Amino acid sequence: MLLLKNNKLPNSRQAIMGIAFSxxxxxxxxxxxxxxxxEKAELAKKTNFPGMRPPQIDGFTVNSISxxxxxxxxxxxNGRKRNNVNTLSGPGNGxxxxxxxxxxxxxxxxxxxxxxxxxxxxxxxxFTISDQSMALNIYPxxxxxxxxxxxxFNPKMLLGVSQYIRPVTLSTTMPVSGSVxxxxxxxxxxxxxxxxxxxxxxLEALNPGGVGAASLRLELDSFKVYEExxxxxxxxxxxxxxxxxANTIKKGENxxxxxxxxxxxxxxxxxxxxxxxxxxxxxxFDSTGANMPLITGGINPVYVKxxxxxxxxxxxxxxxxxxxxxxxxxxxxxxxxxxxIGIDRNMTEEEKTIINSANIKVKYTGINADAxxxxxxxxxxxxxxxxxxxxxxxxxSPGVPIAFQLANLHTHGMIGAPFNINYGPFDRPYVKFRxxxxxxxxxxxxxxxxxxxxxxxxxxxxxxxxYNDVPDFVDYPYDITRSSVHYQNWVSNRETRTERxxxxxxxxxxxxxxxEKEVSYYVKYGSDANTSKTDFxxxxxxxxxxxxxx
Length: 550
What we know:
The protein is an alpha+beta fold and 550 residues long. It is 17% helix and 37% strand. It starts with a strand and ends with a strand.
C-alpha cells in the first residue's frame, strides 16, 4: 500500500537513548519513567554491536600530470553561474551532484624541490554501480557484509541474517503528489520494484501519456593518465576495461595517453531515486539473539541507503589536436546540446573535424542494460546521439540502478571512500607585473593616475616563453607601497607605508588581471602651499613557488 508523507522519519539517536535508559533506571523509584522512553531505549540496543569496528574502504592515490584548476566551466553547463570559460573542471568542484567532497584545502609543495606539486584529498559518498554483478546486491535496505568493503570495495550480501531483518519504509523522488512512501514487509528487490512501479503508475495517471524529465549532469576534464578515470567512480576500481585496444604508454603503474590530448566526460542522467528512511529502532534489523561478532567477523555491516535510477556513461576522447582545441570543440558541442546562452549555435568546420577525427569510446552503466566493454562512438553524430539520448523516462523505460549510497548499520552514518590526487610535477613560473589601459583624470582635482595591473607568467627568466597552463594553486604575495608627501603652508611631511597582499589566478592562462589599481594620487587644498601626493608601487615577493621574470 502506498501513502503520502511530507517529512522523513527522525534519525535514531542511540547514544541519547542509552543515556535516557540509564537515567530511567536510576530515577525509576523516586521519580518514575515513562514506558515509552524505556521501550525506545531498549529498542536502540538491538542494533548496538559492542566490540565491533566500522569498515574502512581502502583509499587510493592517482598521480596526475595535468591540474584541472579551481574554476569549472562545467558549472554553466550544469545550470550554475561560472566566472571564466578558460578553465577545466576537476573532481570535487561540484561534480557528481556533491557526491565527492574535498577533505579540506589541498597542499602545495615546491620550496626546496625542483618542481611544484599539489595534493588534494577527497571523499566519495556515492558509489557507481560498475557492472551487473554488483547491481544484484544493491537495493534499498540490502544489508551488506562490512568485510566486503573493508579494504577492497566489492559489496556483497551479509549471509545468515535473514531472521533478523525487519520491515522498512521506502520513498521516491519521482514528481508525484507529495512524497510517495511504501512500508515493506522486508527490504528486498521486489519491494523496491513494487514501489517503483506504483510511483510510475501514479506519475502516468497524473500526466497521461507523459513522461518524467531526467536530470543530466556533465563532468568534462582533460587527462593524461588513464588511472585518473578511477576518480569518476569514487573508489579503487580496476580500469582494465578502458585499456582494451587503448594506445597507451606504460610508465610504472600508470598508463599515459599516446595522443596529443585526451578528455574524460562523465554524463550522469538521474531519473529518480528510491530512498530508505533512516530506520528507527525495530526497523530494518534486530540483532537480538544474534552472535554478531561471529556473523560479521567483527566488522559492522552496512546497508544500502538509496539507489539512483537512470543511465551513466564515461566517455574517453583522444585527439591529435591540441588540448585547448579539443576541449573548446567538445565544450561548445555540449553547450549547444544544453541550449547554453552565449554559445555559438554553429560548429565551425574545424571543430567538426576535431570531433570527427577523434578516437571516442564510451563505457555505459544504465541505458536499459549494462555494457561491460567500451563501445566505439562514430564521430560528431555518434557523440550527439550518446549525450542526448534518454532525456526522459517512463513506466516502460525507467532506467536501471546506476549509483547508490551506503550507511553504517549501527550509527546510520554515511559511508565514504577516500582518495587522493597528486598533481605534478609542474615547472615553477617566472612572473612579472605589467600595466595596461593606463589613464588619468587630467584637469580634475584630485588628479589620479590608474590602470589595469596584470601578472604575466613565463617559462623563462627573460620572459619570452609564455606559461599558458600555469597551475592555479600557487599563492602569489606582493607588497603595496604607498609613498606620500604632504605640504601644509609649504611645510612638508613624508611617510611610507607597505602592506602585504596576495592573489591566486582564477584560471590557467599566461596572464592574470589583479584589477584596476592606482598609480598616483595628487590633491590640492586651496593653493599650492597645501597639497598631498601619493605614489603607489606593486612588487612581487617570491616565496619558493615562483621566480621573478626580468
